[in-house]
Amino acid sequence: MERHRKHSVGGTTLHTCHPCRRAIPYRIYAVIHTCGIIALMYHHVHSLLTSNNTLITCLLLLSDIVLAFMWATTTSLRLNPVHRTEYPEKYAAKPEDFPKLDVFICTADPYKEPPMMVVNTALSVMAYEYPSDKISVYVSDDGGSSLTLFALVEAAKFSKHWLPFCKKNNIQDRSPEVYFSSKSNSQSDEAENLKMMYKDMKSRVEHVVESGKVETAFITCDQFRGVFDLWTDKFTRHDHPTIIQVLQNSETDMDTTKKYMPNLIYVSREKSKVSPHHFKAGALNTLLRVSGVMTNAPIILTLDCDMYSNDPATPVHKPINAQDVLALAHKVAGCIYEHNTNWGSKIGYRYGSLVEDYYTGYRLHCEGWRTVFCSPKRAAFCGDAPKSLIDVVSQQKRWAIGLLEVAFSRYSPITYGVKSMGLLMGLGYCQYACWPFWSLPHVVYGFLPQLALLYGVSVFPKSSDPWFWLYIVLFLGAYAQDLLDFVLEGGTYRGWWNDQRMWSIRGFSSHLFGFIEFTLQTLNLSTHGFNVTSKANDDEEQSKRYEKEMFEFGPSSTMFLPMTTTAIVNLLAFVWGLYGLFAWGEGLVLELMLASFAVVNCLPIYEAMVLRKDNGKLPKRICFVAVILTFVLIVSGYFFLK
Ligand SMILES: O=c1ccn([C@@H]2O[C@H](COP(=O)(O)OP(=O)(O)O[C@H]3O[C@H](CO)[C@@H](O)[C@H](O)[C@H]3O)[C@@H](O)[C@H]2O)c(=O)[nH]1
Ligand SMILES: [Mn+2]
């Protein structure tokens, strides 16, 4: 095995790769765990042939097959863990020889993605420690919103002050929102002055967003007055012509210190109800073509509007105002441009999955592209994660559906992937594609042994049975390795605990509902789109609870039902099982252990059901329906357990 690999460009090593020491113990453990799984399967088959309750045995067998398969996919990712170190300081090219850089920023909804957030993302990359005239920032607005355009016009004005300020003072946080709300910001007159300007811009933008309309009186740049007229009465977000507006031109626009500025270009591609627009993948493909016509940089960087550059040092001509260039740009941003072309199948971002990032990366890997994972000490980008549980589970449900779209496509990692990339890489990709499959073992293990416990029926080996220990070893082994992996990569114990708790919650919500929706869609019974995650965050009470690490259930959602029901069922089983253990001595130990583990995991749910009074508590309606469901489950348990 090649112990240390170097990767050089023109004789300079830019990054090195070191295998982790845990690889060998991991491989040894993989062999042991595999033997355990084989033994367990033997045990199941044996019970299937001898037992009288085939339904229970089948359900347990099916769940264990899924668990074993998922364990195999995880293990393929753990066989050769590596770390990389990168040496950007060794990149010796002179600034005038730096390549040109096109940055793509996507946004889709001015209410879920506040325009000020887009502004901050754009400003943070425009302020890169990189020759300004070589950067072009393209903002794709799938919401087709004049509010977003208005915010960007304001951003272009503000950047004339912000960029020289950042470069002169060597500011690290180049997103103004982050800079002005951090404690380290300077108190100099210049900084105070800029802060005033920023606040002023922010209040203007927020005012316009709130009013929902860009009044002519608010437009301060005469140059851009005309473009707002394109938002006619017939204009809707699903049906409108292409709008491309150069807001800042690197050849003519200078900042306050007479230095040229990066290009800033607003693009809202044409939309029509009859043409599929392929969500974010479609937006990015449009940007690939528009930028190809306008600036055509050899390097592109794509960002979502909920991300910003966290390190200014992270990153080669056509006159872009020329009539013919803009006409061509409009043409390539049109709805029908992609008809009968290879866009989305062989060129650009691939269509067919709601997780276009995973899918495109995977397809490129299959075609033989090579990638490296860079993870510098100071994170190069920061992003926004949803804070309330409903947003989290909805986001993950979208991912679940997108992943299933890949898993069941003709490019499924299990068939096509394994064939093109080999067994280990193919299995590694399955880990993600098969994510939603986790819901099956979660549901079976979350209800079946507990109901059995309530009826005094054993589904697992008794503690006197040697097979008992196999269950203990497999469970502890899998969890311990997961914990070890988490902690060795810099996570905390508490972080891991929360992580595995979220994993269970997803199994009972996003994965389960994603599966159902995907099935309905396959049967043509429903359709769904890209449900953009809400990034708006102005509820102070909610932020406080977030800081205290409290779950935010908030608005009622059917997705909370299964987890609430399982919480109740496990609590009942736990109490009943404990009572049994003391009353009769011999109890159903494994069933009881499982229920107690679930109860500990469900503590925040009990708290949200009965103790909490704030707005983040579990809605009464959900609790009520969950109690009824519990009752129904227990009654129906009587028929297949007794
Ligand atoms: O029709 C659409 C829908 C979404 N977006 C943009 O896509 C980005 C991601 O959307 P978001 O709601 O933030 O989804 P997340 O789940 O946070 O995004 C993750 O998952 C997506 C796939 O589901 C990936 O595209 C993202 O890169 C990845 O960060 C945002 O900038 C949106 O504006 C569009 O441009 N057009
Ligand atoms: Mn996002």
TrEMBL record:
Cell compartments where the protein resides: Golgi apparatus membrane
Top-level taxon of the source organism: Eukaryota
GO biological process, alphabetically ordered: cell wall organization; cellulose biosynthetic process
Binding site for Mn(2+): K280, D304
Keyword set includes Transferase: yes
GO CC terms in record: Golgi membrane
InterPro entries noted in UniProt: Cellulose_synth (IPR005150), Nucleotide-diphossugar_trans (IPR029044)
Membrane topology: Multi-pass membrane protein
SUPFAM superfamilies: Nucleotide-diphospho-sugar transferases
Coiled-coil stretches: none
TM spans (from-to): 24-42, 54-74, 468-488, 560-582, 588-610, 622-641
Key words, A-Z: Cell wall biogenesis/degradation, Glycosyltransferase, Golgi apparatus, Membrane, Transferase, Transmembrane, Transmembrane helix
Function: Thought to be a Golgi-localized beta-glycan synthase that polymerize the backbones of noncellulosic polysaccharides (hemicelluloses) of plant cell wall.
Designated name of the protein: Cellulose synthase-like protein G3
Species whose genome carries this gene: Arabidopsis arenosa
Origin organism lineage: Eukaryota, Viridiplantae, Streptophyta, Embryophyta, Tracheophyta
